[in-house]
Amino acid sequence: MAQKDAKKAQKPKRATTKAAASKETAAGKKLASKKTVAKKPAAKKTPAKKPAAKKSAPKKPRKGPQIPQTIEWVEGKARIIDQSRLPLVGEIVEITTPDEMIYAIQTMKIRGAPALGVAGAVGVALIADSIDTLNETEYYRKLTEEVRRLIVSRPTAANLIWGINRMMALAARTSNRGIETVRKTLHREIPKIIAEDQKRNRKMAELGAKLVEDGDRILTHCNAGSLATAGYGTALGVVYAAHEDGKDIKVYVDETRPCLQGARLSIWELMTMGVPSILIVDSAAGLLMREGEITKVFVGADRIAANGDVANKIGTYSLSVLAKENEVPFYVVAPTSTIDPTTPHGRKIPIELRDPAELTMVGETQVAPDGVQVYNPAFDVTPGENVTAIVTEKGVVKPPYEKSLAKLLPRE
Asked: How far is CA 355 from the centre of its chain?
């Protein structure tokens, strides 16, 4: 159903503003950002004083390059980084209609659980703007109907549904104040959601960095960095925080077939941020663990069931088995909005099946025979028993997850 909707959905427009500018970097073309150099103020002459006793200054985080923001909300329009074209082309696309947002989600121009939460919220606002009726009953009926298309655009992602539900609840609370008030209220909510996500990511990074030791060699899968969120990242956010703390770390990145989010996105982020990193073929992870080269695994999550089972990019489950066999700690980093208390265990999580062309084609080149049968799940489920701990913005929790996760969530 989602694939049919993708065909109907409109392609988003390329931005023609200066935000679409790009420039070359060692990792490919990266989005341009203006930098200003502050002038050093003139030194003031003061009488010489006896030097005070030296005190150890608190360690300050290193300041360095930053990844451009994944999604922005500007004057009733969304601007997103087109992740399907990275790292070779850095392009901003403008999203102005619900169909454009659905198309962007399904084609992974925007992806990553927290970023999809923001995209879902934006999608609701665009739907609310697009309904052309003054009849309030008809308006809310159409709003509910159109939102269903948004929900099924990536069915595994809990954050997408979380963002949609938050906006729909807000619309319901303000429905007695008129259609135009509802639209304006939804518009005002989006910057709040973006700011909250950025704050959550920083907190998770702070907590997760405490699990990282000097000399660690970390393995990550897919992309759980700044591009997957409204800023900074989840699993890679932990890496960035540890790096900024001055810890000597190295990151191994699975290429992450078939769409190569590790090779295209995570390595690009890590190189941009100056973090030592090495790209590996997915099937090399077991060898590195057996040789003792991997000391910890950090991954993100698309949905976490009530019992701690974790849905994440296909291949994550295999890594968890290898980590358990080789006694390597396996950490999941995700905001509480990724936890789905209504899903009791992983077997109840819907798994998205994607276009067979992701396997049979490499770019424009066909690599598999005509007529081949293809099974292309986007995600798999890692049982909670394989997860050492789950890092959230509210704390780091350990098994039994039925109890520890429940304590993080508000009581109904």
From this structure: 21
